[in-house]
Amino acid sequence: MTAAQDFLRNAATKSADLVHRQIIRRGIDHYDAAVRGGRLRFLNWQAAREKCQDIKREAMNHLDRYLEEFERRVKERGGRVFWAETGEEARRYILELAEARGVRTIVKSKSMVAEEIHLTSALKKQGIQVFETDLGEFIVQLRDEAPYHIVTPAMHLTRQDIAALFKDKFGSMGTDDPKVLVATAREALRHAFFTAEMGITGANFLVADSGMVSVTTNEGNADLGLSLPKIHVVITGIEKIIPSVEDLAILWPVLATAGTGQPITCYNTLVGGPRAANESQGPEEFHVILLDNGRTDLLADPQQREVLHCIRCGACLNACPIYRNIGGHAYATTYQGPIGSVLTPHLHGLNEFQHLSQASTLCGACTDVCPVKIDLHHHLLHNRRNAVERANRLWPERIAFKAWRWTVTSAWRFRFVGWIARRVLRWSYALGLESTPLDPLRAWTMDRAAPPIPATSFRAQWRKQSGAN
Amino acid sequence: MKTSAKTPVKIPTKSNDYSFSGQSVEAPALMWGKGAFAALRKEFQFLLGALLWRLKDSRSLILPYSKRTGEGSHRPRKVLQRFPQPLQPCRDHSNKNAASSSPSYTRLMPTVTMFIPCFVDQLCPQVGLDMARVLRRIGYHVDFPEQQTCCGQPAFNTGYWKDARPLAERFVRVFREAQSVVCPSGSCTTVVRNFYPELLAATPYHDESRRLGQRVYEFSEFLVKVARVTDLGANFPHRVTYHDACHALRELRLKQEPRALLRHVRGIELVEMPYSEECCGFGGTFATKFHMISAAMGDTKAGNAEKSGAEFVSSTDPSCLMQIEGILRRRNSNVRTIHIAGILAHTGEAAEFTLNAGLKR
Questions:
Q1: Which of A94, B78, B179, B353 is the most buried (most CB within 10 A)?
Q2: Is B30 close to A429, i.e. CB distance below 8 A?
Q3: What ipTM does this complex have?
Q4: Which residues of chain A carry a pLDDT beneath 50?
């Protein structure tokens, strides 16, 4: 089964699931209210967006320079930087490192890049225990699921679902009091933090001028994960680079506001290397893996380069009416929602994932909320154009558009074909063929009533009026 | 131009003809049984009428030219119009060199050129007629170049830019002389204004399309921003909610304009629905390719419209309304849809109108 067929089936199931729709709606309503308040804390939200866009544009336009600067600084402090061209290379690096250091347990904080390269399953195959330490990720890991959302991975679950899950896994009381639930998870995770030999985190930003990795969480789990174990591995995409540490002054609050509506997230940590000689705590080894995995191809495309500006705040997912109806799992991709639909064809092949760009009404809600002003819905249009030019398409569709073009390039043909088509529709609906397999507008009338078909077109009526004069 | 009018044309609109797509009396009913027979009879009547019209026209073969074309009209014979004609740009009525056939006073009136999108032309003609009526009411001379067909949006949005390009070029050729173009759809306006320059990049039409795009307006935008009118003297004693069509809202940035127009309608009660900015799920080919997602989105929208307690959902885009009405009908809802032009054109009372009888099919 291809990815497109999978998507269609999942989407059909999910969009008919009213309970699911309600849960998501409730979650996003809370988010919307928080973000609306959050934006008011800015003197000028639009100016802040523009500033962030400028920062990221500058970083992308001089990516080579900033990345090398970052590498130099990290190496000066004794960290190691590995340039991974593909996900396979990045996985192998971590696996070899884990094997060489005899790692048995890994604590991992939330990282979409790790999801992108399927790191956890690769580690598990080697017999290494991996603990997701972000509460949401921890929950979806217990359920053996992929994250539902870039920022809030367990958004699709209610308190009761989680209570039932914890009862099943930990034999807890089954209460749905959030405090008790969090305490249960904390107890399970604390143990993991102290036994783990390696901590893996992602990065929200890589700061070039200071060689620092910025990690943002609300739970402090990443901070434990990067300070307690002996080895700290940062895995991140090359597009996370920003020029200067001063840029964080605007990027941190904007990320927090767009992501959750907070003024700033609870924990924003900058780390840049292993424990120094005069320091008492911290990891002994510090590795940064800079992953390409198709990103440089995107960089080479001047029209779509700005997709790399994404700071993974998840705002476009929450705004997307498609996402609100089918949820994150139906996409079956690492990145869901509008940014996923734009990015995935570039990362994993246009041919296989072109359906994601088609699955949009181009309503533009995503573009409106994007904190770095990525023109998301126009990139979907560009993806569609590229798909028609380069990917496999069904030949009936190509022929249909050729025929359509032939029809509408002449007013005479347009009128004639329109007349015939309206006759056909009127007669079939008069005979009661609506929503039957014989209905010419079957794809429309499966879910909706057919529009009433007028006997005369506008131009015929207009001509009649003008003629009557 | 053959469509130039001598006097403001009376448009035969029945006062209970509400729907955005203008159901006409001769529309066939949808059921088996006596409904089907009535529909067939009406269809037959229609065909007979068309035949008689042709017969009447054929008198032209024996009548002198002035009689068969009508005084002052320069329309060619009906028969000739059946055949393709060379593309003619619509006439600029402010131009002194304009053909002398148009009466002198219309040359003093400002002219708007109507751009009627293909699906409005074929599926909801009433929207176009209503728009013309409103524009005439505020003193515009309304022109309709019959060579227009489609702006190319279906192909463009699906990715078939190569097939959309000739349509875009054709659009520029047809409308290049127009002073201002008015369209009863936000998304078709968007394509012309925002996307043509990109679609026609590196073609000889690029610069012209950019200039033309600045003169193409969505209907409510034109009324408020160009004509600077918000009170159209309309009367529509119903509770109405407004759905923000995505392209009008986010590409053309029209949020207050249609609401300002609606607020000035006599007797209207404008109520806001929750999530009025959320997409209705139409999205062109999306509606059929991913019909289950589209239906779920439409269902949410229809539910919100019902929650608002409105009798009518109005919008700037007939395509959104087609989707919303389709879903509402399947929900057996009493809420109906009407294009904003339909409300603004409506001046009569609504006494004889009842929700379920009003929309015979």
A1: A94
A2: yes
A3: 0.92
A4: 468-469
